[in-house]
Design goal:
The chain folds into two domains: about 20-55; about 60-225 and about 295-400, Vanillyl-alcohol Oxidase, Chain A, domain 3, CATH 3.40.462. Helix content is about 35%, strand content about 20%. It is built from eleven helices and 13 strands. A hairpin with a 7-residue loop joins strand 7 and strand 8 (about 240).
């Protein structure tokens, strides 16, 4: 029986159809090989030219020293962020031959043994625009170029411990990631209340950072770039669309019981034949208002991550890891969205079970990699790529802004006194 099967199978080689198929395969093999090589080599080419372009740039870390009194709401920082919303990708020649890409920035809050500092990392050629925007909104601020604090840490598994993770929305794509997080507008800061009446959601984060002890550090990075249309529109080869905006608008139509195509209010009940008009509760109305406000402002791709590093004798897992998890709960509402750690990234995926990681080899590798990722501010491009969240300027300004006197953390660096210009009538 087996010999008969072999004879029948080998007989296929002598059929004209098979021989013709072999000839076509030979003729087409150069084209197929070219397609395979292009699929493999094109990403490598992009990675190479982008790395070359990046290494040719000079970067600067700007330290922001807060004024003694900040009476402005986070709206001031929102105006600053709108100034760095640069969606330009450059020409196709610049992108695919020179390696140019959309500029990105890193907004950072660091606690060096309890000393809290605000930083903005940027290309050196773009620092003037950022400084001008900050001076315009915060006249008493001091901005200076600072050495990169991340370069002082070199991971040694024998003497150090590290915990790090990226953050993501509490709602995933299926559950509705297009709902906004709780912003400073929801906390009533848009109306600029007096300092004693302010409830700033950034204060719990600053209090945690101010409690970091000796031989410990906590770094928080918000790596941002302008969000652009980057998905092909269904049914179109070259026309692009913004899926984030489209899906958010579809969510509004769903909540309003409207047909997404016709945008006509009310949906027809197939059982009765009558049109059902929406009857929204106050909570549903608030959700729709928040989503519409989110869509009305400039949007950013945001990569948020944090790291807690310290000497082994000083490392406090309950304090450090618990603090990094709890510091984002104030931006969460149950009926909309919030932030949480991504348990699949960096060191959050390891729970200390020894048989999952022999001699901590994977953990040590990731610990060294995350330090390098923080140092390079790598998130959107190789070598360390993450999954960005889409936020508007209001949400981003809520997470990163200069707090007022309501933030009474003693280790928060501020300018000691208010500067004033000399009188114009001084004698010569």
């Amino acid at each position: 029986m087996f010999e008969a099967f072999i004879q029948q199978f080998s007989g296929l080689y002598s059929t004209p159809m098979f021989q013709q198929a072999v000839q076509y395969a030979i003729y087409l093999s150069p084209f197929l090989l070219a397609l395979v090589l292009a699929d493999i080599l094109w990403p490598l080419w992009l990675r190479y030219i982008r790395a070359k372009f990046s290494y040719g740039l000079k970067y600067t870390l700007l330290e922001l020293k807060l004024p003694k009194d900040v009476f402005k709401s986070p709206l001031a920082m929102e105006v600053v962020l709108q100034g760095i919303h640069n969606p330009a990708n450059g020409s196709p020649f610049a992108q695919y031959w020179k390696g140019e890409y959309r500029p990105f920035y890193s907004l950072e809050i660091a606690s060096i043994e309890g000393q809290i500092k605000f930083f903005i990392w940027t290309e050196d050629r773009r620092k003037t625009g950022i400084m001008s925007a900050l001076y315009a909104q915060y006249p008493g601020i001091e901005i200076s170029e600072a050495p990169d604090y991340t370069r002082a840490i070199h991971y040694d598994p024998k003497t150090m411990k590290i915990w790090a993770a990226d953050y993501k929305f509490t709602r995933d794509a299926k559950k509705g990631e297009h709902y906004p997080i709780k912003t400073y507008v929801d906390y009533g800061l848009l109306d600029d209340p007096k300092e004693e009446f302010k409830v700033d959601p950034l204060v719990p984060m600053l209090e945690f950072l101010g409690s970091v002890g000796p031989n410990q550090q906590v770094w928080i990075q918000f790596i941002v770039q302008a969000h652009i249309k980057n998905d092909r529109k269904p049914g179109h080869l070259f026309k692009k669309t913004d899926l984030w905006k489209d899906q958010s608008e579809t969510l509004i139509h769903t909540l309003m019981m409207r047909d997404p195509k016709t945008k006509v209010a009310g949906l027809k009940d197939e059982a009765t034949g009558f049109t059902k008009l929406p009857s929204l509760t106050k909570g549903e109305t608030d959700i729709i208002t928040a989503i519409e406000r989110r869509l009305s402002k400039q949007s950013f791709d945001v990569g948020m991550r944090a790291i807690y590093v310290g000497q082994k004798e000083a490392f406090n897992t309950v304090f450090g890891v618990g603090g990094l998890i709890g510091m984002v709960k104030h931006f969460t509402t149950e009926h909309m969205n919030g932030l949480k750690q991504d348990s699949d990234t960096w060191l959050a995926q390891f729970n200390g079970v020894p048989w999952e990681d022999y001699r901590d080899m994977r953990r040590n590798y990731n610990a060294d990699a995350v330090i390098k990722a923080f140092r390079r501010r790598s998130f959107f491009y190789p070598p360390y790529e993450g999954k960005p969240m889409v936020m508007n300027s209001e949400e981003l300004a809520t997470l990163f802004h200069l707090p007022g006197a309501v933030a009474g953390t003693p280790t928060l660096a501020r300018v000691p006194s208010k500067k004033a210009e000399a009188p114009s009538n001084l004698p010569i």
